[in-house]
Amino acid sequence: MTKLIARLLLILACIPAIGTAAETREAAAFFNLNMGDLKTELADARKDGKKALLVMFEQEGCPYCLQMKRNILNRKDVQDYYRANFATLAVDIWSSVPVRDFANGEQTEKAFAKSSKVKVTPTFVFYDL
Asked: Do 26 and 51 touch, CB atoms closer than 8 A?
């Protein structure tokens, strides 16, 4: 009997984790695929009639980023509004992934975040077209 209870508790403990993964996937749909070239992203946004480029600076394990993704960015009304008006990208403030900045300089996402004076996450920055 105790083995059965232990198994049920283990199954119940996994249920929120499954929901979290689904919520994170839905929030991930909020962001455009970051191709690593911000100047091109800006030009594409202009061509597509967007108002600005929105960059969410985030970091892995950030509870506030996760809360934003779970409670705001996964909502259909929020996603529809931002997709219609903005090109949206996510940048990890600790990432060593290369990115070409607006001046065609090559740097890491971490260096770009630092040059943008981002110190806390989540930080949302709108770049005018």
From this structure: no
- Looking from the CA of 19 toward its CB, the CA atoms found within 13 Å total 8
Question: What pLDDT, on a 0 to 100 scale, did the predictor assign at position 114?
Answer: 97
Q: Amino acid identity of 18?
A: I
The 8-class DSSP code of residue 11 comes to H
CB distance 57 to 93 below 8 Å: yes
Alpha-carbon distance of 26 to 34, in angstroms, equals 17
Helix (H) or strand (E) holding 23: helix 2-28
Distance (Å, whole) CA 98 – CA 91: 11
Strands 106-108 and 52-58: unpaired
Give the pLDDT score at 120: 96
List pLDDT tens digits, range 16-66: 444 455 555 566 678 988 889 999 999 999 999 999 999 999 999 999 999
Alpha carbons 43 and 60: distance in angstroms, whole number: 28
pLDDT computed for residue 63 by the predictor: 96
Q: Output the furthest CA–CA distance in the chain (Å, rounded).
A: 66
